[in-house]
Amino acid sequence: MLDIEAIKANGLCSGCGLCAGIGKGAEGAEGAEGAEPAIVMRDTADGYRRPEAVRAIPHNQAAVIDAVCPGANIRHEPESFEAEYHPVWGPLITARLGWSSDAELRQNASSGGGLSAILTHLLATGEIDYVVQTAVSPDSPVRNALTISTGRDDVFHAAGSRYAPSSPLEDIASRLNAPGRFAFVGKPCDVAGLRQLARHDARVDEKVPYMLAFMCAGVPSYRGTSALLAEMGVEDESEIAAFRYRGDGWPGFATAQLADGRSFRMDYDTSWGNILNRHLQFRCKICPDGIGEFADIVCADGWHCDENGEPLFDEQEGRSIVLTRTAKGEAALMRAMESGAILTEPLSTDAITHMQPFQAKRKGLVLPRLAAMAMVGRQRPRFENLELARNTRMLGVKESLRSMLGTLRRLLTRQRAG
After folding, report:
1. Where do runs of H (alpha helix) occur along 41-187?
2. What is the per-residue pLDDT across 109-146, written as a single tens digit (0 to 9) for each?
3. Which of 58, 88, 204, 399 might form a disulfide with 30, Cβ 3.0–4.6 angstroms?
4. pTM for the whole thing?
5. CA 218: distance to chain centroid?
């Protein structure tokens, strides 16, 4: 059994908050509703969100954590697939490009507002009562917080990428105990954790009719945000009145507005490509699912490409890759299209490979990196039914070896340092 200390010590924690969230009221976990939780989520000195046990964790709760933690487990049940399994892109019913028909929402969101358009449609039609998602914290413009959206304006406020730690599952038991049904929006690991919890807690399928994800290249620490702000020229974070990582255009600019009226900004290719992605947590480097394979619907940037098939990051009108993975996800999207909330056009998987080249090869990197973990005695996560071996073969021996050796070097360096 992997407990939270082993999960953290081996670099497997993604910071989702699920272990803390199931502490009260989850089926299979001891402890009555209203009891003090055994686990709380806290910010660490290195800028991540991590669980901390504040009292003894009941055995039943520990067993559920061992089975559902997405840091320790990413496991499909093939018999549950409602779509053909694409070896690279996962369970896939239909691929489309899409964008919000609401011009203001399309402009505000990170990639055309495809995800936001689906959410506003679900709320407007009463298919859900609210949305659980991540937005800027009310306490700090450079921190994230869980938010509840009940209408278009709430969704609009929460739109836009948040390249920093978040724990959207840390109160999941409270959500499952509360009245109403909700759509959950999160990183692929968040959605995988919730889907795995559904195998142990019947309330998940009852209360969460839709799970939506966005493709993710990894979670930078809050130190990454500080490094980004410093590079932008912000000398004192306490002076920031408003901050966004991107959006207000596509891809949009990282933008910090200070209380004295000054504004600083940086283009997406520099902010993400040169700064933020240097601060990713280790679990993201061995992630087999950056593409939201457990979601009903997943969205991502539908980048335009140059004549060589390489993504372009010039400012344009936003558009999203929209992948449906379940029958109900496809049906919901079709209804949103029929209502005019989202506009779409067909998309091939070959085109996705050019738009998202990192995600296209990501699965192939996993087994070589897990091999490096084994060499230094680290416990490895349980990844099942993800076509990892096939993707490793497609990646090729040379790149697989490079990935393994690079991971081994980093792990040995960390061991020596601490």
Report:
1. 59-68, 103-108, 114-124, 152-158, 172-177
2. 989 999 999 999 999 999 999 999 999 999 999 999 99
3. 58
4. 0.96
5. 8
